[in-house]
């Protein structure tokens, strides 16, 4: 089974850039999207020419902001929207699909902001998100994918010294949040399989960062420790265009 996760930076925008063809070429069983920037009806309209997938979307109350979606060939046993915490569930950031042998989440973790104005909120989110995953994990293994808006280790961004504790996504508080999550019985699949590989999934739109590969790895597939034997591969797809992020993929057996 192949699962692909992508922060599309606007599903309506990416739909105009050949997204249907990309999906056909990927031949993935499940596709998880983040930052759809559209209401539920607009998501389904944007994806209306994509066959063979059931579409589930979760939009923010604020129009044109945030939002997540799951495209899946197999009907899930259940779908759940949000974390069940009203303070977090205004922005359409998490969808949980239950399958026979695992839970799958698409998650768009809040950005702490250019001036780190949401850093305190981000800590609360990280704590509550980790608790949510731990609760799910008591029932069956969890696969959590999406834009986690943090580079966990220096290898995960091109310029760690310049950005440490100055830039959203690489403050010690955000790093600690990811460390706590991974310490709760979860594994970063890409880093587990590729401990020394430098790969990035997001690039600034400025200064030709993507062409120069001055990037960050902030998009992840995280799985329960117990599910690790089922992981065949975890990789980044930097040649796929259409967003300031590229897709990441997980292959499981």
Automatic annotation (TrEMBL):
Gene3D superfamilies: Endonuclease/exonuclease/phosphatase. Keywords: Hydrolase, Magnesium, Manganese, Metal-binding. The keyword Metal-binding applies. GO terms for molecular function: DNA binding; DNA-(apurinic or apyrimidinic site) endonuclease activity; double-stranded DNA 3'-5' DNA exonuclease activity; metal ion binding; phosphoric diester hydrolase activity. Its EC number is 3.1.11.2. Belongs to the DNA repair enzymes AP/ExoA family. InterPro entries: AP_endonuc_1, AP_endonuclease_F1_BS, AP_endonuclease_F1_CS, Endo/exonu/phosph_ase_sf, Endo/exonuclease/phosphatase. The record marks 149 as: Transition state stabilizer. The record marks 219 as: Important for catalytic activity. Residues 4-245 form the Endonuclease/exonuclease/phosphatase domain. Its cofactor is Mg(2+); Mn(2+). The keyword Mitochondrion does not apply. The record marks 245 as: Interaction with DNA substrate. GO terms for biological process: base-excision repair. This is Exodeoxyribonuclease III. PANTHER family: AP ENDONUCLEASE, DNA-(APURINIC OR APYRIMIDINIC SITE) ENDONUCLEASE. It is an enzyme of class 3 (hydrolase).
